Amino acid sequence: MAWIRRHLLAIVAFLVLFYMLLPNMVVILFSFNKPNGRYNYQWTQFSLDAWTNPCGAPGMCPALGLSLQIGLIASIVATILGTAVAFALGRYRFKGRAGTNLLIFMPMATPEVVMGSSLLTLFIALGIPTGRTTILIAHIMFCLSFVVVTVKARIASLDPRLEQAAADLFANEYQTFTKVTLPLVAPGIAAGALLSFSLSFDDYIITNFNASPASVTFPMFVWGAAQRGTPVQINVIGTVMFLASLAIVGVAQLVNARRSRVKVA
Amino acid sequence: MATESSGDLRLIDITKRYETFTAVDNLSLVIPQGSFFALLGPSGCGKTTTLRMVAGLEQPTVGRILIGDRDITDTKAYQRNVNTVFQSYALFPHLSILDNVTFGLRRRGVSDYKAKAMEALELVQLAHIAKKKPAQLSGGMQQRVALARAIVNRPDVLLLDEPLGALDLKLRRQMQIELKRIQSEVGITFVHVTHDQEEAMTMADTIAVMNAGRLEQVGDPGVLYENPATTFVANFLGQSNLLKAEVVGTPGELADLDVHGTKLRLPTPRLVEGVQTMWLGVRPEKLRLVNGDGTGVEDGLNSLTGTVTDASFTGLATNYLVRLPWGQELAVVQQNDGMPRASVGTSVTLAWAPEHSFALDSRQDAHAGAQDQADDTGAA
Amino acid sequence: MATESSGDLRLIDITKRYETFTAVDNLSLVIPQGSFFALLGPSGCGKTTTLRMVAGLEQPTVGRILIGDRDITDTKAYQRNVNTVFQSYALFPHLSILDNVTFGLRRRGVSDYKAKAMEALELVQLAHIAKKKPAQLSGGMQQRVALARAIVNRPDVLLLDEPLGALDLKLRRQMQIELKRIQSEVGITFVHVTHDQEEAMTMADTIAVMNAGRLEQVGDPGVLYENPATTFVANFLGQSNLLKAEVVGTPGELADLDVHGTKLRLPTPRLVEGVQTMWLGVRPEKLRLVNGDGTGVEDGLNSLTGTVTDASFTGLATNYLVRLPWGQELAVVQQNDGMPRASVGTSVTLAWAPEHSFALDSRQDAHAGAQDQADDTGAA
Amino acid sequence: GSKGRAAAGGGTPTAKAAPTDMSEQDKVVNWSNWPEYIDVNDKNQTHPSIDAFTKQTGIKVNYTEDYNDNDEFYAKVRPLLAAGKDTGRDVWVSTDWMASRLIRLGYAQKLDLANIPNHGNVEDSLANVPWDPGRLYTLPWQSGFAGIAWNPKATGGKKVESVDQLLTDPALKGKVTLLTEMRDTVGLVLMAMGKKLASFTDADFDAAMAELQKAKDAGQIKGFTGNDYTKPLAAGDTAACFAWTGDVVQLKADNPNLGYALPSTGYTLWSDNFVIPALAQHKKNAERLINYYYDPKVMAMVVDYVNYIAPVKGAKEFLVKQDPSVAQNPLIFPSPDVLAHSQVFKGLDPVTETKYNKKFQALISG
Amino acid sequence: MAEIGALAAASEHHKPARRGRWTPYLLLVPGLLWLVIFFVLPTLSLASQSLQTGSVDTGYTMTWNWQTYTEALSLYWPQFLRSLFYAGSATVLALLAGYPLAYFMAQRAGKWKNLLLVAVIAPFFTSFLIRTLAWQIILNNDGIVSTVARKIHFTDLLQFLHLTQTNQLMASPFAVICGLTYNFLPFMILPLYANLERLDARLVEAAGDLYASPVQAFRRVIWPLSLPGVVAGTLLTFIPAAGDYINSRLLGSTQTVMIGQVIDGQFLQVLDYPTAAALSFLLMLTIVVLVALYVRRSGTEELV
Ligand SMILES: Nc1ncnc2c1ncn2[C@@H]1O[C@H](COP(=O)(O)OP(=O)(O)OP(=O)(O)O)[C@@H](O)[C@H]1O
Ligand SMILES: Nc1ncnc2c1ncn2[C@@H]1O[C@H](COP(=O)(O)OP(=O)(O)OP(=O)(O)O)[C@@H](O)[C@H]1O
Ligand SMILES: NCCCCNCCCN
Ligand SMILES: [Mg+2]
Ligand SMILES: [Mg+2]
């Protein structure tokens, strides 16, 4: 009992963590299922079928490809645009700062249905057909704010004296930017890009408003599949994504940890 | 490209105004090539601003800055042959120590940058950690890297803005010796900003004391210490006891002064011209504690009698406070060289040679410079 | 609830082990009620750990802690009548100064907490800024708030962990006086940890010097300084010149020692028992610089002859290095009391009274405690 | 003002054909259909009839089961149709009333009957519908009934055979789903109230809606679904529901305990129809596909699997030959008696349709 | 990815320098233009749409038809309130669950810290739809969870609280809130973590030193200091949760329909654009007002 009281915080923390990871466990488990019929909701039998034939579910791999493609383009564009805005906000004093900040904040304070539907309203009004392009436009739009906030925070934590030191050491404005500022802000930019990718890759609500039947993203495929019976392959993809992100985030953390460990030393 | 021409650093009538505030006020200075120059003054007096103008990180509102005959006032920071060692070191955290040190050389296209950098690192005895990142080093080591990073460029002038401020006492003393050694080895002009008067006095050839954006006094450390020109310098550089004195006559080499009824003397040339009432200044270590009855006082010495109100042992010395009959307390320092100490409450006589005192215009504030630094009633 | 019982603070055979590392090693100490006690030692020697065990923030692995007769070893931090002034101040940034100071009182349900807090703020002369937030204050002011916040609880013991470490020199000296004044006013037991030996010596009634988790010496500042028990204390507390000496005879009150062929003397009781070869120690300020030919040396004094290799003016005093014939350099400090100074290169005689030197076992490392603090070749 | 205007705005209900039909260059046809609406080889999840078509004609069929619900599908393709853009589909399968709307708005292309020689095989009863006289735009794919299905695991072994029971039995509370298909859901309730689907009034409609609202407010109804009712039904998360006949028969293959009932009060009869949308890129291939399925032998193969009613003459004969047991299946071979108890929802003019839709949508999406 | 926490730390420490008069605008233009065209304009378009009358097939005209708003509200206010209630509950639950975990990671985890952080962030990258579908399996009527919940009378408790109407977990308010909590938990944890990591542990010790028991230390020191993280986390959870309909669609019933679902249906099924637009606009307005009030009350304006 005393042991429990002493470790109460750890126990609660691990319960919460369990809660967070439980669905992933289920996804992994059911990627090895051999369902009885078209619905993969009950454990029937162990099988590697889905793993050996991951693209066996018709339409899934193209959807996955489209999502990856959109995620990539959207995060690159959003990162470029957002980083520029973040630099303007973090590095310059200019008229309209407050307005800019508000404009950046608003998309984050707007529910996805509203953003998705309003964009659709615009596209309808302008007679722009929905599809890959409209999805991209939407994704870049909602990723932008997250990039700005992430990069801006990094810029704000940047010691201005480092740039002065560069100037003092004969670096002109351009060299100062490329040799000192950019490398130092890079982790923030990378974080913004990663965040964008995950937001884009995962988005269903906004995408569904602005997609066309010809542009089915992975989440849309999952949604559709959920209506008519999810193929086991979806769990395979879910598992791969989970493991890949574990690896990526893990490596990133390791690098970070090494850096900060050094700092502590 | 910075030119290789060198010479004295000259600030001519420099003023720097920020919106409403004048940080540096009509400052003129000549800093001889190759000298170790210290800039001293209370917080906010404009030391950093002055350095930043020399570095080119700030533009003077008025005035010119020259190195030798070359006017660099309008030259950009990266075009000046001037380098800075920042108080915070400002090492690039993403670059290795070696890359930090080669940074300036590579910007200027020096070809054998690596060899030069290693040489500089050897000078600061850090060649063995060239591959590490700044975060892996201790404060003292980072300090030395910052120094190497600046020195490797052989600038005309090296600016040091409280480079030792963040180090602890012992490390600080050690780095002072190091800095001094390096300066004499490389022969570059050092302009050193510090809060620590002892540091300034032990290291510098010349000290400039600044106050509120203006220059108070410039000169050899000994001269500044023994003969301060203002009450500010007297109080800021070490401690001074200032006694209100009235000139009563100048019979010869020594002038007669009346201090609360006691006759004291001062070499006549030291009197402040055209002023009758003045501050008679004497440093705590110049006062000798003698028996209360004044019997031990040699002829020709000034003396005053009072009561010891505080004695505190600091190891090397003992600090006393002695209250004079009119209530003023004088600070007295006596080296613990084995002479008997006075204890609190006993009556003592303080004696000193007339030539160990100085005079200042009594219209100046007797406390200027004393509170200044300790004044922390405003926000940090 | 903390009880109001009070008394001496006693640490009995305290050991604190972290996994593999022993931070405090079998330490026993008695700190008399109402005393100002200083804990001194190099970085990492276990000072903070000791304090934290007293505060209840850390549990000793072995040993008991008592205040008066009350064993508080197993009492929780918030139940001990002990308060701490942290080096970082650890003021609550979200609370006003007043709320910071009332914090402890309110936790204990004291009813007139506001009046008491204002009283404490007046004690540290900050009553006028009670409504401000910590971030609006300078370092010195924050320091005083931290002090008020602790003192207002009238703890049995007040622990101060380098409370002045972050302040600059002048402010530090001023705060030292303030602290001392407050301690004598409130009469609480102060346990003060510091890196600054001068601070410890001026402030404390008793000093304990720690090294690597163990106690080196405890005693009156003057005794520790004049008669260190180990080379560590000799070097750590101020500076010492240690000369290798051989006892050649103990004719009477004074023993005869041979130091590199020169005969020097030392009061016989000071000899280390049972040891033939020892370190003869003498403090830099005890050495008197006399003419090179030794003519001015009074009878009965020890004397050595050497050459001045360095002289540095610090205002108050001048520090010299004098090289002896066998290559050893002695540090000499001479107060700038107006006596003529020796210049570098001249030959001088150093003289001191035999009773101003001490002896230590020569099997101890002559450099113990000297490098210790300045060593920064490892990462900080 | 918004420019979101239908092509029909101009009043010319003729769907645009693609500028050039890509059928010859591009041997594909893109077909959107409802789930569980085609034959499946359970071993490898392929569609034998489609594979045979490809083998025969060299035309690849991109078969997508993304038609879950008429309204939802319409909402998906409407912006494209309205904007005069290709929908990416060459043919899909819409229920009668939706097919009627598509023709009315000029979103459906006229069939080139020359490409569909099997056109004449359409069942006589379906050859002339009011909204497409002579079947110039559409041809039926399958017909079927909407009735009630249940999973005994979730009902506690209970059968659910009437609409009343479905809407009120406390044992089913919170475990009932109804269809988002207004004509089926409201139709079943209207019939249970004794109304005729060909002649009910607005007041009857409102009464049926009130009935549904009551059940919903009581927490009886878990949800309104398109064709996606099947998974929870099979899983037992849904105890009982309105369902389309063939679906349940297919589900029974995996889960024989599932129950199915055509309520004695009546049930809806409907057809889903091939529609070739405006601007379809492979119209000719689509017509070849339709023609292919109008071969009675092929249709028999499909019907044998999906268990709906074949609209193609002669299919039954083949089926009986192939698999005599299905001849007994009243769902595939509804007896006249079974047919007599089925009803067809009356045609609605656009204004009434909008009015009913709005009320029904408020019910299901609120 | 803990940079999400940057939201909490986005206050500006360094006053930006003033350089180049045109550079900032050049940097801003592309990004802001994007937002103006694809966020502001659509929002205005939405506002305009909400006041038009007509139908998809006949086109719309602007008639300043405010009635759409009153009609939409009178029809759908329950879904509105429900959304706010579910989102609010999920936010509170996420805070209750996320705080201990974030605190543990930030202050107690030691060398496990990074591993835990990875575990928290990784699911974030796994399609949330897939994970939400997994909840269907977990809460499934015959599942272990449901069986246990019935056995320990947890379902009865839920029924008493009106969080389910039957003895099952699925298709209930409970399932929806549980899913919302789950889905937005990382958005709560990361800002909290970022904040708590910077919490000076010495302040907690100081509180203990000043006689605060652990509970008091939490209430008087840790909690107030973590408020910026709490505010950032609750906003990042509440805002998207209020507009979400995935969870209510996949885990709920007709009794749990949220406003996002209504908007989605009105847009994509009913094709009643004015009503849909009016509802969207109302939702946005509600959230902006709530956020503004909340941020003001919690005194962390500098957050945005
Ligand atoms: N950018 C600025 N805008 C307005 N005032 C400024 C600016 N920079 C400096 N100042 C003011 O100029 C004065 C001089 O500042 P400076 O940094 O030169 O002082 P300093 O002598 O270096 O002080 P310290 O010893 O504390 O470093 C200060 O009062 C400061 O507030
Ligand atoms: N939690 C811990 N785990 C392991 N070792 C520790 C821990 N806390 C302290 N130590 C070690 O114990 C030794 C004593 O630490 P302590 O903080 O008491 O030193 P200190 O005398 O206060 O030093 P300083 O003057 O630098 O503050 C150090 O070597 C330190 O590394
Ligand atoms: N699985 C195929 C179901 C087809 C249902 N068609 C809808 C008809 C609506 N009345
Ligand atoms: Mg400065
Ligand atoms: Mg310590």
From TrEMBL, chain A:
It is a multi-pass membrane protein. Keywords: Cell membrane, Membrane, Transmembrane, Transmembrane helix, Transport. It comes from the Bacteria. The chain crosses the membrane at residues 7-32, 68-90, 102-128, 134-151, 180-201, 232-255. Residues 64-252 form the ABC transmembrane type-1 domain. GO terms for biological process: transmembrane transport. This is Spermidine/putrescine transport system permease protein. It comes from Oryzihumus leptocrescens.
TrEMBL record, chains B, C:
GO terms for cellular component: ATP-binding cassette (ABC) transporter complex. InterPro entries: AAA+_ATPase (IPR003593), ABC_SmlMolc_Importer (IPR050093), ABC_transporter-like_ATP-bd (IPR003439), ABC_transporter-like_CS (IPR017871), Mo/tungstate-bd_C_term_dom (IPR008995), P-loop_NTPase (IPR027417), PotA-like (IPR005893), Transp-assoc_OB_typ2 (IPR013611). It catalyses: ATP + H2O + polyamine-[polyamine-binding protein]Side 1 = ADP + phosphate + polyamineSide 2 + [polyamine-binding protein]Side 1. Keywords: ATP-binding, Cell membrane, Membrane, Nucleotide-binding, Translocase, Transport. Its EC number is 7.6.2.11. It holds the Pfam family TOBE_2. Residues 9-237 form the ABC transporter domain. GO terms for molecular function: ABC-type polyamine transporter activity; ATP binding; ATP hydrolysis activity. SUPFAM superfamilies: MOP-like, P-loop containing nucleoside triphosphate hydrolases. The complex is composed of two ATP-binding proteins (PotA), two transmembrane proteins (PotB and PotC) and a solute-binding protein (PotD). Part of the ABC transporter complex PotABCD involved in spermidine/putrescine import. Responsible for energy coupling to the transport system. Belongs to the ABC transporter superfamily. Spermidine/putrescine importer (TC 3.A.1.11.1) family. This is Spermidine/putrescine import ATP-binding protein PotA.
Automatic annotation (TrEMBL), chain E:
The keyword Membrane applies. Its main location: membrane. SUPFAM superfamilies: MetI-like. Pfam families: BPD_transp_1. The keyword Transmembrane applies. Keywords: Cell membrane, Membrane, Transmembrane, Transmembrane helix, Transport. The chain crosses the membrane at residues 25-47, 84-103, 115-138, 170-193, 221-242, 276-295. GO terms for cellular component: plasma membrane. It is a multi-pass membrane protein. Coiled coil: none annotated. Residues 80-294 form the ABC transmembrane type-1 domain. One of its GO terms (biological process) is transmembrane transport. It is found in: Cell membrane. PANTHER family: INNER MEMBRANE ABC TRANSPORTER PERMEASE PROTEIN YDCU-RELATED, INNER MEMBRANE ABC TRANSPORTER PERMEASE PROTEIN YDCU-RELATED-RELATED. Belongs to the binding-protein-dependent transport system permease family. CysTW subfamily. This is Spermidine/putrescine transport system permease protein. It comes from Oryzihumus leptocrescens.
